[in-house]
Design a protein that fits this description.
CATH topology of one domain: Lipocalin
Largest sheet: 8 strands, antiparallel, barrel
Distance between the termini: 75 Å
Order of helices and strands: HHHHEHEEEEEEEE
Strand content: 25-35%
CATH superfamily of one domain: Calycin beta-barrel core domain
Structural class: alpha+beta
Number of helices: 5
Helix content: 25-40%
Shape: globular
Strand order of the largest sheet: 1-2-3-4-5-7-8-9
Radius of gyration: 27 Å
Length: 229
């Protein structure tokens, strides 16, 4: 049976008020419950949503970074990572990327991109030195956006007898605020230096950056986790 339009809007005033108060109370209770369930113990309900979200995101970042760096250490920069550990890292890496707090790190004058970064994890077999001389100490990447230059440095243990420093410089050509093409320029092995072939090119996609951690993706599909030195 269809209710006549006039009947639908002629509810007595006292009933309307009562319903309104009841509805408001239920809505408030439901909202508070939902907020509690979503944010857990992180925040009092009186904090504005945007502040609450910032605190929630910061808590998530901290937790994810702890998990990523713990796994990086456990797998010796990825050198000994099992298939399951590599999958776990990819999952954690993707989650942290979604919480990137820095927009356009290559062109943002307030970003903390410049300086020395230690490589904590990568999926690149060549950088890890699989099948070759072991890497001793940190693998370092230095970036300077003011000169659009970068330098990768490491130390190799040759024949298990002598440590040999090795580095390569590069020129950066940003495509946008987070992605840059890379032209490698000069190699140095011990005291010997020589120019890199023109074909030695790559790219760098900076997908996460804060004061402590940087995540990047390379042109061959590899991922890199770096921490500020």
């Amino acid at each position: 049976m269809c209710l006549h339009p006039t009947e639908a809007f002629t509810t007595p005033t006292t009933t309307t008020a009562a319903i309104s108060r009841s509805s408001s109370s239920a809505s408030s209770s439901s909202s508070s419950t939902a907020t509690n369930l979503f944010f857990g113990d992180y925040l009092p309900l009186s904090i504005p949503f945007f502040v609450a979200k910032d605190k929630w995101d910061n808590a998530r970042r901290t937790k994810l970074k702890e998990q990523i760096l713990s796994l990086a250490s456990e797998t010796q920069r990825g050198l000994t990572a099992t298939e399951a550990q590599a999958e776990d890292m990819q999952h954690l890496f993707s989650q942290l990327e979604q919480l990137n707090p820095t927009v356009n790190p290559l062109t943002n004058t307030n970003s903390n991109l410049n300086g020395d970064w230690s490589l904590d994890y990568t999926t690149s077999d060549s950088i890890l030195g699989k099948g070759g001389p072991p890497r001793m100490g940190p693998i370092v990447q230095s970036i300077d956006t003011t000169t659009l230059s970068a330098k990768n440095s490491e130390t190799l243990r040759v024949a298990n007898v002598v440590n040999v420093p090795r580095s390569i410089t590069a020129e950066l050509s940003p495509v946008n605020g987070k992605f840059t093409n890379v032209q490698f320029k000069k190699f140095m092995v011990g005291p010997v230096s020589f120019n890199a072939p023109d074909s030695f090119r790559g790219s760098l996609d900076i997908t996460y950056l804060d004061d402590e951690v940087r995540l990047t993706r390379g042109d061959k599909g590899n991922i890199f986790v770096l921490t500020r030195m």
